[in-house]
């Protein structure tokens, strides 16, 4: 029985590592949501792609890469965030990639992806490059968002690939890596004061075997403000509820929406604000 149980476990892990190929009839140009994979060595990594209706054939769109939380999957964050509706209303393409066993290697977090040394940076690089080559994504208008562990991965990507991003939005996520961005990056964050997983005031441990505390959310935002050479977060954010403050008018913005009494969750208003935040950011220079 023990041998059979171990065999079943191995089969389950292998099933998580090997994705199905592109479904018959699926196309990168069709509106709606379709399943795709990207070959990463011996591993075909899956992602969902959502395209809005009414897109002129072959016209590149601004791209949002949306990263699911720990022990979740692309379909979960797709439904959790409601970003499809934002994409349809505001004209975005949205890619929902899948992490290793439901996790992303965001630095000091998280578990499976970090333990296995998964190169999620290269995966996200190739995802973006693929969608640009296919004419789906405008390389000057690439954005990234994520929830929890996915938010931490968005921070990591901004730290190490700032030149590829026009902005990021993080929901209940933690900066879990040393950060030296090559250029300024606009950042919008959402965080609840009673978040038990990523404490608003910091503390705890970043992972089961990483006995290093989370940074306080306001410290993380002060870092982004400082590295971007911006003034204090003291301006109300247009379109945001009470508790949303930013660094003021201008193309470069760092802003934080604090949910008083909020937990580890995606606020109902967040996706609308994320779409508007990204739309207001300037395009990257042409390469």
UniProtKB/TrEMBL annotation:
This is Polyhydroxybutyrate depolymerase. The keyword Signal applies. One of its GO terms (cellular component) is extracellular region. GO terms for molecular function: hydrolase activity. Pfam families: Esterase_PHB (PF10503). Keywords: Hydrolase, Signal. The keyword Hydrolase applies. Residues 1-26 form the signal peptide.
């Amino acid at each position: 029985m023990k041998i059979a149980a171990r065999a079943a476990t191995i089969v389950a892990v292998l099933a998580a590592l090997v994705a199905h190929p592109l479904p018959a009839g699926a196309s990168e140009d069709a509106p709606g949501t379709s399943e795709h994979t990207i070959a990463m060595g011996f591993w075909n990594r899956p992602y969902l792609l959502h395209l809005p209706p009414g897109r002129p054939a072959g016209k590149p769109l601004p791209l949002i890469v949306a990263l699911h939380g720990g022990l979740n999957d692309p379909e979960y964050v797709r439904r959790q965030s409601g970003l499809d509706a934002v994409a349809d209303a505001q004209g975005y393409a949205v890619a929902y990639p899948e992490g290793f066993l439901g996790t992303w290697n965001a630095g000091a977090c998280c578990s499976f992806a970090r333990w296995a040394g998964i190169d999620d940076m290269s995966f996200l690089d190739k995802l973006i490059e693929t969608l640009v080559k296919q004419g789906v994504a405008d390389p000057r208008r690439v954005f990234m968002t994520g929830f929890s562990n996915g938010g931490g991965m968005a921070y990591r990507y901004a730290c190490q690939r700032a030149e590829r991003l026009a902005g990021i939005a993080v929901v209940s996520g933690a900066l879990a890596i040393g950060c030296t961005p090559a250029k300024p990056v606009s950042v919008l964050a959402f965080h609840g004061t009673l978040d038990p997983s990523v404490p608003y005031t910091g503390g705890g441990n970043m992972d089961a075997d990483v006995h290093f505390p989370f940074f306080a959310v306001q410290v993380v935002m002060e870092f982004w403000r400082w590295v971007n050479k911006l003034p204090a977060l003291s301006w109300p954010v247009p379109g945001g509820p009470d508790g949303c403050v930013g660094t003021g008018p201008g193309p470069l913005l760092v802003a934080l929406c604090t949910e008083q009494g909020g937990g580890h969750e995606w606020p109902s208003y967040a996706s609308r604000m994320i779409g508007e935040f990204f739309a207001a950011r300037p395009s990257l220079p042409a390469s």
